[in-house]
Specification:
The complex is a heterodimer of chains A (110) and B (117). Helix content of chain A is 0%, strand content 54%. Chain A has 110 residues and is mainly beta. In chain A, strands 2, 4, 5, 9, 10 and 11 form a six-stranded mixed beta sheet that branches. Chain B is mainly β. Classes of the chains: A mainly beta (110), B mainly beta (117). Chains A and B meet through strand 5, strand 9 and strand 10 of A and strand 5 and strand 10 of B.
């Protein structure tokens, strides 16, 4: 079992729709959860982080964490073509390295 | 530019040659990480430093790989006797670990794309 699992996609949504990206993790000791966006040929860019159960909103982005079910999700409201990228989920235990999933490719069509 | 800087951006080498990459982290960051990423995969952890101390090395890091961070500032990653399987994007990231909380956010450099022919 991989430590962090994501559906590779692509996830296709029309412009203006809500994109829902999901991630599950295996280590129950994980304490910090991150979403990175990576455009083709570019390096990952941090867009959201969450430490506690529940929802965290930042602009059009909402991160959701459920530690009991060991999943974290990212919702993108009013999706734009510029949101088309690969979204990487990453988790870590305190004092330890960040472990990444393989990423979900999102395609937003005009 | 106060972000993480990596050099070179691209490196093409022949199998068996040695290569060295450099990373300059964000100046106030005390942690520095090296990751490797291949097409269609997420970044894979290689090693990280807390100041000048190398705290963890991945099993992915064979004896041909060595990383240093002298004086806790920039870091170098050297690959000796390169193999075609070493072809990948090598990413450096830095973070600020405040009082050992560990919930630090990583900021990545642009990466070094290595092609081994």
């Amino acid at each position: 079992q991989k430590e962090v699992e994501q559906n590779s996609g692509p996830l296709s949504v029309p412009e203006g729709a809500i994109a829902s990206l999901n991630c599950t993790y295996s280590d129950r000791g994980s304490q910090s959860f991150f979403w990175y966006r990576q455009y083709s040929g570019k390096s990952p860019e941090l867009i959201m982080f969450i430490y506690s159960n529940g929802d965290k909103e930042d602009g059009r982005f909402t991160a959701q964490l459920n530690k009991a079910s060991q999943y974290v999700s990212l919702l993108i409201r009013d999706s734009q073509p510029s949101d088309s990228a690969t979204y990487l989920c990453a988790v870590n235990r305190s004092f330890q390295k960040l472990v990444f999933g393989t990423g979900t490719r999102l395609l937003v069509s005009p | 530019d106060t972000g993480v800087s990596q050099n070179p951006r691209h490196k093409i080498t022949k199998r068996g040659q040695n290569v060295t990459f450099r990373c300059d982290p964000i100046s106030e960051h005390n942690r520095l990480y090296w990751y490797r990423q291949t097409l269609g995969q997420g970044p894979e952890f290689l090693t990280y430093f807390q100041n000048e101390a190398q705290l963890e090395k991945s099993r992915l890091l064979s004896d041909r790989f060595s990383a240093e961070r002298p004086k806790g500032s920039f870091s170098t990653l050297e690959i000796q006797r390169t193999e075609q399987g070493d072809s990948a994007m090598y990413l450096c990231a830095s973070s600020l670990d405040i009082m050992g909380q560990g919930n630090e956010k990583l900021f990545f450099g642009s990466g070094t794309q290595l092609s081994v022919l």
